[in-house]
Specification:
The chain contains 12 helices and 8 strands. The protein is of the alpha+beta class. The chain has 2 domains: about 120 residues, no CATH class; about 140 residues, no CATH class.
């Protein structure tokens, strides 16, 4: 558990660099806060209890802030100025698991920040608590009372999102995305079947005219082309179902999983293809049924 005091101040510069660091924030963190953040150092070291107790003017630079200030090495004992006060750079943080905003800032000990600048006024102090996996929500419910038994209402604990709820939300979003993709594929497939059937009608006008001349009625022509488009849609649904089931089984075998297939999700697929083919072939079939025998035979 730790208590980083966040106190952004834009006036940060490197030794002799004027206002190079404009826009870089200043963060105050205790040594415990640094451990809870789990930083990865690019170079140097973290400040410790000695610097915290004595209120030393030392700092850590986030990697992005170090690049903006033109600092990449510490062998020359570089320093940065915060509101005109020099701070020796003891380490550069390449990455951190928590509070990533500190990568674009300067981190100083909390005792030094309180002495130089006082308590933060633009943003409240925060306590960063590192817990074991699964204990975050329980610790969050008890932390205010443990830190301030007299006034727990002064503190507000914000636990990370529940992984189960987050997983359910991700599953819901993915299901919605796949549903949208499935609808798009159905629409594209329907247009493809309609286009194929319409081309077949245009190319087979002579056949349609001959059938009409021999006594075929419009409903017979309509049924012929509807049957063709419906068969095409059914075949597409069957092939798609086989490919989907094969993909699931292949992935399960490759990863040594147990494949779980829901009949309610697999069996309706050919029926959906059949309905799609029927609807897609409706307009070309009606257009073929309206073909006049004499006009068709002349062409």
């Amino acid at each position: 558990m730790s208590d980083p005091l966040i106190s952004p101040r834009p006036d940060v510069t490197r030794t002799g660099a004027g206002s190079q660091g404009s826009g870089i924030g200043v963060y105050a963190a205790s040594p415990g806060a640094l451990r809870a953040m789990q930083p990865t150092l690019a170079t140097g070291t973290l400040y410790g209890a000695f610097h915290q107790t004595r209120g030393e003017r030392v700092c850590l630079l986030g990697l992005s802030a170090a690049r903006l200030l033109g600092i990449s090495r510490l062998d020359g004992s570089p320093a940065v100025f915060v509101d005109g006060v020099a701070y020796s750079v003891v380490g550069i943080v390449a990455d951190t698991k928590r509070l990533p905003q500190t990568l674009l800032g300067v981190v100083i000990p909390t005792s030094t920040a309180l002495r130089e600048y006082g308590a933060p006024t633009d943003a409240p102090a925060q306590a960063l608590i590192r817990t074991r996996p699964g204990a975050a929500r329980l610790v969050a419910s008890e932390a205010p009372l443990a830190l301030r038994p007299d006034r727990p209402d002064l503190l507000k604990a914000t636990p990370p999102p529940d992984p189960h709820g987050l997983r359910d939300q991700v599953d819901t979003d993915l299901s919605g995305l796949f549903l949208v993709l499935a609808v798009i594929c159905l629409v594209v497939g329907a247009f493809g079947i309609a286009n194929t059937t319409l081309v077949a009608v245009l190319e087979r006008r002579a056949e349609i005219g001959l059938r009409r001349a021999l006594g075929a009625r419009p409903r017979h022509i309509t049924a012929q082309f509807l049957t063709e488009s419906t068969t095409l849609g059914t075949l597409g649904g069957l092939i798609g179902t086989c490919l989907g089931v094969g993909t699931v089984l292949g992935t399960a075998l490759a990863r040594d999983w147990t494949a779980v297939l829901q009949p309610a999700a697999v069996l309706p697929a050919p029926l959906v293809g059949t309905v799609t083919g029927l609807l897609a072939g409706l307009y070309p079939a009606l257009r073929a049924a309206r073909t006049e025998p004499l006009t068709a035979l002349r062409r």
